[in-house]
Amino acid sequence: MGYFRFERLITKYGRRFDIIIPAMGEYVGGVWKEGKPVIEEEFGAILSLSETKLYQLGGTLSAQDRHLYMNHAIRHHIEENRSRGNEEFTGVYAYTLRWVSAIDQIKK
C-alpha cells in the first residue's frame, strides 16, 4: 500500500515565513558584542492546534502554538521534530512552533 504524498497540499496552502536564527555573541577586546541574528525565508503550511489536541496533551501546548509542515527539513537546531522519521513515507517534515511572548524575550 502506498502512502499519501502531502507535498501538493503544502505547496497549495503554504506561505512564506521567516526563521530567525539567533547568533552567538563574542568578547572583542574584553567587551561583549551581541551577534547579529540571521533571517532565512522558508515556505510551509502553518496550522493552529485543535482544541481536542490541547486538552489531550494536558496543557503542554498553548492555544498560541502552531504546527508547521514543510517539504524539506529545517537545517538549524530545533526543539521538536514531530516527523520522527515518517518524512520518508509522507514526504513532509512536521514541527511544533512554540509561542514566545515579547515580555518573555525582554526578561532575558
Explain what the structure shows:
The protein is an alpha+beta fold and 108 residues long. It has a domain at 7-16 and 44-107. It is 21% helix and 31% strand. The protein has four helices and six strands. It has helices at 7-13, 51-56, 87-90, 102-107, and strands at 15-21, 26-28, 31-33, 38-48, 66-70, 93-97. The protein has a four-stranded antiparallel sheet with strand order 1-4-5-6, covered by helices on one side. The protein is elongated and about 55 Å long. The protein starts with 6 loop residues before the first helix and ends with a helix.
Structure, briefly:
The chain has 108 residues and is α+β, with helices and mostly antiparallel strands. It is built from 4 helices and 6 strands.
Name the features.
two-stranded antiparallel sheet, 4 helices, 4-stranded antiparallel beta sheet, alpha+beta, 6 strands, 31% strand, single chain, 108 residues
Helix/strand layout:
Layout: H1 7-13, E1 15-21, E2 26-28, E3 31-33, E4 38-48, H2 51-56, E5 66-70, H3 87-90, E6 93-97, H4 102-107
Antiparallel strand pairs: 1-4, 2-3, 4-5, 5-6
